Amino acid sequence: MMYTPINEFIRITKDAYLKGWHERNGGNLTYRLTKDEVEEIKGIFNAREWVELGITVENLKNEIFLVTGSGKFFRCVELSYEENMGAIEISPCGSKYRILWGLTNGAVPTSELPSHLMNHNVKFSVTNGSHRVILHSHTTNIIALTFVLPLNDTIFTRELWEMATECPVVFPNGVGIVPWMIPGGNEIAFATSELMKKYDVAIWAHHGTFCSGETLDLTFGLMDTVEKAAEILVKVLSMGGKKQTILSHEFKELGDAFKVTLNPECLK
Ligand code: 13P
Ligand code: ZN
What we know:
The chain is of the alpha+beta class. It has a single domain (4-267), classed as 3-Layer(aba) Sandwich (L-fuculose-1-phosphate Aldolase), CATH 3.40.225.10. It has 11 helices and 9 strands. A 9-stranded mixed beta sheet has the order 2-5-4-3-1-6-9-8-7, sandwiched between helices. A hairpin with a 3-residue loop joins strand 8 and strand 9. Helix 5 (113-126) runs parallel beside helix 9 (186-196). The longest helix has 23 residues, at 216-238. The model has no long low-confidence stretch (mean pLDDT 98). Bound molecules: 1,3-dihydroxyacetonephosphate (13P) and zinc ion. Residues 25-28, 68, 70-71, 110-112, 136, 183 line the site of 1,3-dihydroxyacetonephosphate (13P).
């Protein structure tokens, strides 16, 4: 028998792979389990030794996450899930983790664990614990745009908003941009988590996208919406650029109609 949260996690890795966002081992996913979900699956836990995180995540003490493995392919999670994903627990001091289940044959959590956990740590406080998911994907069109648009939060947001009427409703605060940095470390993790105080989407220039959300489906849907807007923008730029678009006063009317507060910096 397979357990509900593990099933859902596998479904998202499969769907994200099929979107073309996860070549080879590209991208990673982490999900903070609810207390009920921990109860549901704790029978399969078998704790291993504690490992230093190299960071302290104050808000995540004793929390349990489902994570993808480092070097593991999203394509393979469904085919052999115990090898390619696992459950980890954060220590009572918030500076260590241990594997509770999965990640067999010497596998370890994603190399982007510092970024994922620092993002979860920030989102835990700014959303009162409602956000549980961080998804990092190698989104083709967003990456392409980081070679041609200025690496500026406001400009990127406005360009993406204009590509589909529902975009500002789905990501009303916009997107933040991290300039090119070495992945896998604490420095890029800190830069990303700073953006997560304000945005649910952080774009790593020439690399990919991080999305945060309440549920696996909402986070996948956010990634899909942002990447689709980027795909439209790539097509529009390839056809010679915009001849007409949605105007600032129209976005304000849209915000009023859908009762969402749009980031005012992107409405000038
Ligand atoms: P992992 O295989 O360690 O998860 O790394 C993939 C990746 O996308 C790095 O940014
Ligand atoms: Zn990556």
